[in-house]
Amino acid sequence: MTMQLIGMLDSPYVRRTAISLECLGVAFAHDAVSVFSTFEKFQDINPVVKAPSLVCDDGEVLMDSSLILQYAEVRCGKSLWPREAAELQHDLRAVGLALAACEKSVQIVYERNLRPQAYQYAPWLARVTGQLLAAYAGLEREIARRQAYFAGPPSQASITAAVAWQFTQSMLAEIVPAESHPALCELSGRLERTAEFLKYPPDGPGVAPGSN
Questions:
Q1: DSSP-assigned beta bridge partners for residue 28
Q2: 37-64, pLDDT tens digit by residue?
Q3: Cα dist. 131→97, 101, 121, 126 in Å?
Q4: pLDDT band at 114, cuts 50/70/90?
Q5: Which candidate, 67, 76, 91, 70, places its Cα nearest to that of 24?
Q6: Are 143 and 98 in contact (CB under 8 A)?
Q7: Which CATH number fits domain 85-195: 1.20.1540.10, 1.20.1050.10, 3.40.430.10, 1.10.150.170?
Q8: What is the pTM of this model?
């Protein structure tokens, strides 16, 4: 049985996982099941309804992009992380910033599109927006500081940063200005033209207003 990756590619977490698995050479099938429009189908696969989910060869279901990729690397004997401790530390910093940016972007999108406007809490949105901008400011500095490294072969840091940036720019470009993040723009533009990124484009309905 081929492993199955469950989830829509308009989720940065699902897309990050799919591209990383492709870069690792791990065989899998992608099943574009939505946590919104096809909730019941997703629930049948994973009652927690968390994307991404990975159905393993024996039918056991894993979830959370980072945990899925940790398993995949052990399984295939390859890694998208550097081996040297100092470089690993830097990559963990970059991935942490990128995942924080993903999380804050998703929180803003959900607040805007799922909660009625009358119930949206402006102080909370302002705080999350500040966290989002801080995450991208930090990530921009990391990429600019390690320009030669990020120009090399795809790593977990470069994949996650590029996927996060594309997602935020597609949904919240008015909040995070591209002109203030030239290193991220260059990285994203370059990786989005690679075979692995083109194979898994950010397709899907996103979070439709009124979905639940």
A1: 3
A2: 999 999 999 999 999 999 999 999 999 9
A3: 10, 8, 16, 9
A4: confident
A5: 76
A6: no
A7: 1.20.1050.10
A8: 0.94
